[in-house]
């Protein structure tokens, strides 16, 4: 790739603060290769999208390397899916599901720069969410129901860190949780049902490798909808851990559907790429071939 100019987009708090050091290593390695770099290290998510957009509009970049977790990748795709500059995600967060699906899962600067310089990026689909008159795009999975409520509760815990806070949140949410009444419209077909959760997937995993929709593909022009129909709380505790291996797929209470446009109404909250989207109702549609990434996935 001739005349390379790479924007390094960093979450300084991810990776227990190791991301800035990793960014410095990549910048030094790029300099040795005569590759230009610009560092964007926003102090908080607020304003990060505006700063990213301003930089991308002011200079010609051949790539964006995001160093952080799914939250930073989520911010990046809001702009890169419009401006059409390819994205490489370095896994430096908690979940790293976007990187798991699209990158080498390497933090070696030389390997990363080899990959970005010598390989051609590919186009993948994204999901687009319409909620309360605004829109957001996501790369992995939008979740509603039990898992989203656990996420909501975990985010309120400022004391416990890492995965343990989700274990505590699960124990807090489970005793009071009841099946949720949903109204779904999938490609014009309406369904009313009760469910423990309804998720819409563009990628296979979320939550740090949980294979919620293992058959989901990023370039098939379709979204995969997973419905967990009502089960007892004991059965929920049995089913949910199986998501890590994908063994929940054959459970009789688990249903999968594919579609291009999905509307979801219920009294619950939605999360996508681990980020809070808001209270339902929402509409989700597939955006085909809308983001360029370097991907190891077929």
UniProtKB/TrEMBL annotation:
UniProt-listed Gene3D superfamilies: 2.60.200.40, Probable inorganic polyphosphate/atp-NAD kinase, domain 1 (3.40.50.10330)
Keywords, comma-separated and alphabetical: ATP-binding, Kinase, Nucleotide-binding, Transferase
The UniProt record lists the keyword ATP-binding: yes
A Pfam family this chain is assigned to: DAGK_cat
Every DAGKc domain range: 1-133
InterPro entries the record matches: ATP-NAD_kinase_N (IPR017438), Diacylglycerol_kinase_cat_dom (IPR001206), Lipid_Phosphate_FormReg (IPR050187), NAD/diacylglycerol_kinase_sf (IPR016064), YegS/DAGK_C (IPR045540)
GO molecular function, one term: kinase activity
GO-annotated cellular components: plasma membrane
The keyword rRNA-binding appears for this protein: no
Protein name per its UniProtKB record: Unannotated protein
Species per Swiss-Prot/TrEMBL record: freshwater metagenome
Lineage: unclassified sequences, metagenomes, ecological metagenomes
